[in-house]
Amino acid sequence: MPKHQFQTEVSQLLHLIVHSLYSHKEIFLRELISNASDALDKLKHLTLTDDSFKNMNFEPRIDIEFDQENQKTLTVKDNGIGMNEEDLAENLGTIARSGTKNFLSQLTGDAKKDSNLIGQFGVGFYSSFMVADKVDVISRKAGEDQAWLWTSDGQGEYEIIPVERESQGTTVTLHLGEEGKEFAEKWQIESVVKKYSDHIAFPIYLHHEEEKEKKEEKINDASALWQKPKSELTEEEYNQFYKTISHDNDDPLLYVHTQAEGTLEYTTLFYVPKKAPFDMYYVDYKPGVKLYVKRVFITDDDKELLPSFLRFVRGIIDTEDLPLNVSREILQKNQIMAKIRKTSVKKLLGEFKNLAEKDPETFETFIDEYNRPLKEGLYSEFEYRDDLLELVRFKSTKVDGWTSLAGYKERMKEDQKAIYYITGEKEAVLRNSPLLEAYRKKDLEVLIMDDEVDEIVIPSIGKFDEIELKSVNRSGTDDELKTEKDEEREKEVKPLLDRIKEVLGDRVKDVVASSRLSESPSCIVADENDPTMQMQQMLKAMGQTELPEIKPILEVNPDHEIVKRLESGENDELVEDVSYLLLDQALLVEGAQLKDPSDFVKRLNRVLGKAV
Ligand code: ADP
Fold first, then answer.
1. Ordered domains of the chain (ranges, CATH)
2. By Cβ atoms counted within 10 A, which residue in 34, 85, 106, 362 is the most buried?
3. Contact by Cβ (8 Å): 171, 165
4. From the CA of 91, how far away is ligand 1's center (Å)?
5. pLDDT tens by residue, 382-405
């Protein structure tokens, strides 16, 4: 018999599921029903759009059977789209989702932490092995004659062999282990279905025997939850429905249900997960919003339904105003879709703002997870920029935790002209940067931007509420800090600066007097239109090797003891060594790597030798 190996990732995932989710065993049933429902959705769509399926007699349903006497099996059956041999191997033998390897490598072995992680991943079919020693899947794909049996004990291998099945669909039979027997009980199945799958849009029938008589009973509500009037729905129902569509085991952070009537008729039900989906930062993330037309499933794989900065949102869009056979190309150009999308985004952003006002604590959790995608939106979606500017948060030299730009503005000094920020990789390095010294002395607040997207996103904003955002990593931003005395001193020190510039030659673009330093003798900044050093490092890290070399500007603190002494000194060898040391130490505090550390050490020792 042909045996196949599970992809390594599947074996790892199986192990993880069994070890971290055992306290939520019952979710296996939710996952199987959700798969069955998806399969029914897909076939229904075909019967409405594909000529070869239009005439088929299709009454979508899900059937659950179990071995009442010996509690040995539980079966979930659907008459949906089904799978052929390749589909079975592909879907139940591998994990195609991108980022799976990376996800699995984050596992710690600590069951509690791991079960949090797995919530973001979604466990699906494989959760069956929590309750079953062996799983059989018999499936026949719609439009094909051959059926296939996939079978496995979840221990690294599976088999696929040809079998018979009377019509299209999938039958999943679980051979229950000791830990699964409790699920071969009528009341157990009913209660799990009620809890998680009541609002699956198709009927679920439970087959059982009562006094030797076979009975079939519909055990769910079988109406699309999002179509029910809001007033009839409880938070509990919303939350359970979220779990069905998202595969998350946690409640959502928030949900927004909109039923629009009038020129456009549509319903949206959106959820924000408590934890960011694990694939949020992968290019080929799985979109979380499903599109329905008149309650018929159309697609769950359209990244354009919402802008990418909202890719963490889960939920449903259902509209009355599109044709059922709408294609992806049409969707993308469609005016109705564009309107639904726009009002949905506005609605969501409005909800986020509400959250910030009414429940700052939850909003903080929200920001911890989603600040970055929202910042990306600032860069990519001009249309929502003003809303997003109200939402994004930053670290600051003046407040603990997060601040909004509006918060910063309120704290600004009367004569302060700009919003200052510093960018870089590490918060600690930034907080200790010499670039901040004068701002601290003058009691000016500076935003600490240590998120790698900040370098790109923030300069693109330009202004917030008419106030310019200024990077303190750039030359010229300290002009505002300059006093008349500084300017005089600048003239005095000019000859020394010229000499330093001569020594350093092409390692620097310029050497100028600084007004932003107090304790440190020097710092480096980028020329107004050059990328900052952090930006250059980031581009390098992203694989851009052919960057033109961009030289920094060395700023020297004219009031520093070292500088004053050099000015009076005659010793030119000392000036030379110190020039290099001023540059190299400024690079070091910015977290840069020195090109020639041994030269730095040699010069340092020579100077120390003279001082000791
Ligand atoms: P997910 O549902 O998150 O994609 P699963 O592991 O539960 O992950 O299922 C993997 C794939 O197997 C599904 O995406 C679907 O293509 C297929 N599948 C699972 N169950 C069924 C079913 N009952 N009918 C048809 N296809 C199914």
1. 4-222 (3.30.565.10), 226-358 (3.30.230.80), 392-479 (3.40.50.11260), 482-611 (1.20.120.790)
2. 34
3. yes
4. 6
5. 899 999 999 999 999 999 999 999
